[in-house]
Amino acid sequence: MSKIAIVTGGNSGLGFATAKKLCDNGIKTFIIGRTKEKTEDACSEIGANAIPVIFDLNNLAGIPTMITDIAKNGNIDILVNNAGINFKKEFIDVTDEDFDSIIHTNIQSVFSISREVVKIMKNHGGGNIVNISSMASQYGIPKVIAYTASKGAIEAMTRAMAVELAQYNVRVNCVAPGFIKTKMSAKALDSDPERKNKVLSRTPMGILGEPSDIGDAVYYFASSESKFVTGTVLPVDGGNSIGF
């Protein structure tokens, strides 16, 4: 019987590349997205192993039922917590509502969905959770205070979860993407040459990563290749986090 995975925010960018990698390796993957058309189109593009789930993760009360419905297809073996939001604003202009909305989506929903999935994994002999962090948790980046706080929390949660869930044979790891070539990042960097030069000059490998680089790292954590690895944060960043 094929494994079952969930990828949140899997209808574009890094989530799409991750879902594709899992599906290409015979894993039935439920892609959670807010937008019906975008999520269904992504699943059509990936192929038969991709199944769309139209759901807004901000609806915390609905998460247990959604996970129970997915589990009717079999044990959930892999959860990839990829969905997240961000915006750029000067520190003093960030409102309490701004801050709260990012914390809610990027931390609270990750906790809630992980909790519900672990209930299932615990009863089926274990599983793998892979969280997605960011360079913002590796060093300070201006104008993204709420996002930075949320991704710092994700890395701390990864360690806490790994220690507590090991007893259930649930491994928890984290991938911290560097600057990756997506439509969104290309647009942002191309419109700000100074920022792009800064990114590339402090990346020892001197290039932007590919979305597939993140998919490959997630797949490593989700597979038996990493069976003795838990509680780690893997920067996939061309050396950016240690660059000078």
UniProtKB/TrEMBL annotation:
GO molecular function per UniProt: oxidoreductase activity, acting on the CH-OH group of donors, NAD or NADP as acceptor
Keyword Oxidoreductase: yes
EC number: 1.-.-.-
A Pfam family assignment: adh_short_C2
Top-level taxon: Bacteria
Keywords, ordered alphabetically: Oxidoreductase
InterPro entries in the cross-refs: NAD(P)-bd_dom_sf, Sc_DH/Rdtase_CS, SDR_fam
UniProt-listed Gene3D superfamilies: NAD(P)-binding Rossmann-like Domain (3.40.50.720)
Family affiliation: Belongs to the short-chain dehydrogenases/reductases (SDR) family.
Descriptive protein name: SDR family oxidoreductase
Organism: Mariniflexile litorale
